[in-house]
Amino acid sequence: MIRLMMIGDVFGRAGRRALKDNIPGLVRDEQIDLVLANGENAAGGNGMTRENAREIFAAGVDVITMGNHVWNKKEIINYIDKEKRIVRPYNYPPGTPGTGFGLFKTKNNDMVGVVNLSGRVFMPELDCPFRCADQVIPILREETPVILMDFHAEATSEKAAMAYYLDGRLSAVCGTHTHVQTADERILEGGTAFITDVGMTGPRDSVIGVKKELVVHKFLTQMPQKFEAANGLYQFNAVIIDVQRDTGQAVAIKRIQNYE
Amino acid sequence: MIRLMMIGDVFGRAGRRALKDNIPGLVRDEQIDLVLANGENAAGGNGMTRENAREIFAAGVDVITMGNHVWNKKEIINYIDKEKRIVRPYNYPPGTPGTGFGLFKTKNNDMVGVVNLSGRVFMPELDCPFRCADQVIPILREETPVILMDFHAEATSEKAAMAYYLDGRLSAVCGTHTHVQTADERILEGGTAFITDVGMTGPRDSVIGVKKELVVHKFLTQMPQKFEAANGLYQFNAVIIDVQRDTGQAVAIKRIQNYE
Amino acid sequence: MIRLMMIGDVFGRAGRRALKDNIPGLVRDEQIDLVLANGENAAGGNGMTRENAREIFAAGVDVITMGNHVWNKKEIINYIDKEKRIVRPYNYPPGTPGTGFGLFKTKNNDMVGVVNLSGRVFMPELDCPFRCADQVIPILREETPVILMDFHAEATSEKAAMAYYLDGRLSAVCGTHTHVQTADERILEGGTAFITDVGMTGPRDSVIGVKKELVVHKFLTQMPQKFEAANGLYQFNAVIIDVQRDTGQAVAIKRIQNYE
Amino acid sequence: MIRLMMIGDVFGRAGRRALKDNIPGLVRDEQIDLVLANGENAAGGNGMTRENAREIFAAGVDVITMGNHVWNKKEIINYIDKEKRIVRPYNYPPGTPGTGFGLFKTKNNDMVGVVNLSGRVFMPELDCPFRCADQVIPILREETPVILMDFHAEATSEKAAMAYYLDGRLSAVCGTHTHVQTADERILEGGTAFITDVGMTGPRDSVIGVKKELVVHKFLTQMPQKFEAANGLYQFNAVIIDVQRDTGQAVAIKRIQNYE
Ligand SMILES: [Fe+2]
Ligand SMILES: [Fe+2]
Ligand SMILES: [Fe+2]
Ligand SMILES: [Fe+2]
Ligand SMILES: [Fe+2]
Ligand SMILES: [Fe+2]
Ligand SMILES: [Fe+2]
Ligand SMILES: [Fe+2]
């Protein structure tokens, strides 16, 4: 069995602290083989600096996936091509810096495929994530049947459709982007683990990571509002997924919510 | 203490069956004082017929709230004004059939205020739900501090902002619309219970209620696709909230997921 | 010189009548070599039946282009593959019925390439129209430098960006979809004729073709509203473009607005 | 007769230069009584500084209307309440800085009412512009029947619906926001002048004012792109409307397109 942990969008300073506080214990106690985290909000809510990425890897993350905020810190364009442990949504146009999938070795030398895709409903205009999945999964399956997708999308329908579409072809479809963990984790008929959203790892007393009074003010006034990451205690949101080494089928998915 | 149960979007035949199977036992075992359900998808996914409403009330629901699908079955325009137990989003323009809030008596003769509002992010262009809440809540509070809002919205940020904005002014903000239950139920500092989404009561093996192959086909082809409610076993999604009779403050919120 | 006429979205009965009344005279007086019309609203506003297509061809249209309403009349799926004179947006997924570009002969046996693409801003989630143009134009240019694109899009920025992106690679970029003719027709530096929107050929006293009181009611009430084509007198909106036979460069573009 | 000139969105340096070059001659030759201009893009595309406003007034503009970019230069919050000649969209929430309508005297001491509203289709979530118009127009009509609306909106349907809804109640509905002048100026049955979009006064060789290569790059890459105002020669887009002093009915509307 291979045990994967996927951590929901890491948001700002509180999110990064949550990684340091939680990953070592979980890896040890839960015997996790590979740790993934969505890093699109690592830099105070928007994007991820090189320094953020270093901090996240140092905290025990093996692979960082991204989302619609991937380019918010422009410096990522300079380092993403060199850092193969960062995977950005595959469905950006060809020629986009970085890569959309990768193969990663666990501590026990097992190979795990990782894909990142962005949804298109209420999201940027990218290539069709369903057809992109059709392209990428066979490439990864040549190396390993153990494959996890971070599907970064807004609409619950698009996420569920993706999971059903791919059921049996990969180990897990983990939704991200809404910053709220859903209570619908399950193993689909074909053996694919699915959760609509893993949630957020960041400041708890916030509106999806942002200082709540700023978001409320924005809704009340409809005027432009600079958002800032909230301070204070963190929440750590993740899922742990058990996958059969030889078939790539998931046999268990468990939600994690830790609090400071 | 007053115990309220809010049931997530009732979807089609399976959803209506779930109500009959689950409400009586829950009301008895959990000692529930008032049962609310979102009915916007009662008629096979779109809208609610008069017959659907009768069936839902007969199953033990005391108040039906609605959402963006409220007008999909046109006949509702004919009966919504006579049926005071149906509450549609308040932020439709003045003159819209039906009403957006109401006062309802529990079995023990306690008064409970109910408001329904629709979000505006990725949703129809209605009046500002925040300012509408500011209007309605004082009216209800003249009668009772025990007030529950069904905030029918897509974006997690809009739902959380609403809950924080109203914290301490009403008993509960229950999100609906995404059809996926979230795992973030909690009592905010001011005593307002909050969950981003209560989830869906309808066919489990589906994409948010719809036959999954139809939704997948729609995403793959981008061609118009008539959606049909899925068949098969149901899920029942709800929350149970305990509210202090005299202060209106919530002291507990518990998620319910029952399966056929 | 080759003279092309592109007619804006043909809307309902009034639009079809406008074709019969206007095309013969214009073809004769203006010496037009090829007549194109956008037919996505031919059937009372939504889609195009086989009978509509026959009527449009009989009125003197040589090529029908389409848009986001292409599939509204489902019967088109049955006849679009047999009728090579219908060109639907190319950027639907591979496998979609119909074709997205074609080569057509003028009365003088000159070859004209036609491409239809849909924008993505405020529109359905299709493949990137810019990259699709990069694919199609070279294919057509192997046969002829005289190429006209119907770019069916909402946002003025996307239409202008497309025209500048393709300037010098094809003869004309004609915007459609908004149903309002723009006054910005011009020849770009590289020799490509451009207009943001050709306009609508349909009922004049209407809101973009629809009975105006229905549209106003929809905006006022935010309730679902069945739209119907307006009656009454028509407007005929088109552009006439002169293209050099050997270079494919446009030398003139002229707007046409005829009224009943 | 009162002659009004409404100038389309003034974009950046080229737009401001166009005002200085064109207004004096037009006012003199066309005998214009009141000059209005949309200023939301005056500051290099985004918002309007105090200095921009001074420059625009000095160029001969009597009233500046705004749009969705009104708040992009934050300093406007400080000066908009003192400068009554700036009118921002009325349908922002109560309490928003500035005002949404005003009464202005022409050179001959005639009173002209001006309203600014923002559409809601593909635009920010503001109050219903139709119901806001119902509120404002009677207030202005108590002083004068000569009333011009700048309806800043994206969708052609929303603009046309507004014009038909208000036909006979005000002198003119001038659409702005798309930056492309439409060729549909006309007087409606009830005597209201209407044009879907007045167009843009700014750099001609651009994508709606922005350096075209930046916009093309944005569409091709879907990566964030800082937009900059284009340089070079300007275009000046406006309409001139003749209104009967005593009835407020428009009798003529004429489009203006001047080029450097
Ligand atoms: Fe995120
Ligand atoms: Fe995101
Ligand atoms: Fe629903
Ligand atoms: Fe809904
Ligand atoms: Fe159309
Ligand atoms: Fe269209
Ligand atoms: Fe503008
Ligand atoms: Fe604008």
UniProtKB/TrEMBL annotation, chains A, B, C, D:
Keywords attached to this entry: Hydrolase, Iron, Metal-binding
Cofactor list: Fe(3+)
Binding site for Fe cation 1: D9, E40, N41, H179
Molecular function as annotated in GO: 2',3'-cyclic-nucleotide 3'-phosphodiesterase activity; metal ion binding
CDD domains named in the record: MPP_DR1281
SUPFAM superfamilies: Metallo-dependent phosphatases
Binding residue positions for Fe cation 2: E40, N68, H152, H177
InterPro entries per UniProt: Metallo-depent_PP-like, YmdB-like
Active site (UniProt): H69 (proton donor)
PANTHER family to which the protein is assigned, alphabetical: 2',3'-CYCLIC-NUCLEOTIDE 2'-PHOSPHODIESTERASE (PTHR36303:SF1)
Family, per entry: Belongs to the YmdB-like family.
Name of the protein this chain belongs to: Metallophosphoesterase, MG_246/BB_0505 family
Annotated organism of origin: Desulfoscipio gibsoniae DSM 7213
